[in-house]
Amino acid sequence: MRRDVFQAIADPTRREIIHLLARRPLNLNTVAEHFDISRPAVSKHIRILTECGLVVIKQQGRERHCFADLGRLKDVAEWAEQYRTFWNKKLDALDAFLAKEHKPSKNKK
């Protein structure tokens, strides 16, 4: 089953795993050491991230290393961009309105 990338970033533990792996690839045990949850729980998070296409696991000798593949976050960025544009327009209009309302009157001293 291929999960949606939004499912991956919905969980704070998975966001932290992405953050760790974005800096450098780590083996599964090293990833698990960063969290106060069980190794199976970390493995479940890794599996979800893999299903979402944000993490790739490669066998290197006896160890399995996790690599971040952040290309799928482009979907999130594009989705969020529409709201950034919307709110920027709204805030620019509010700024213009407030500037107009608080403009000093020429008749006042």
Automatic annotation (TrEMBL):
Transmembrane segments: none
UniProt-recorded name of the protein: ArsR family transcriptional regulator
Provenance organism: Chitinophaga lutea
Top-level taxonomic group: Bacteria
Name of one Pfam family that matches: HTH_5
Gene Ontology molecular-function annotations: DNA-binding transcription factor activity
Annotated SMART domains: HTH_ARSR
SUPFAM superfamilies associated with the record: Winged helix' DNA-binding domain (SSF46785)
Domain HTH arsR-type span(s) in chain numbering: 1-88
UniProt feature coiled coil, ranges: none
InterPro entries in the cross-refs: ArsR-like_HTH, HTH_ArsR_DNA-bd_dom, WH-like_DNA-bd_sf, WH_DNA-bd_sf
Database matches in Gene3D superfamilies: Winged helix-like DNA-binding domain superfamily/Winged helix DNA-binding domain (1.10.10.10)
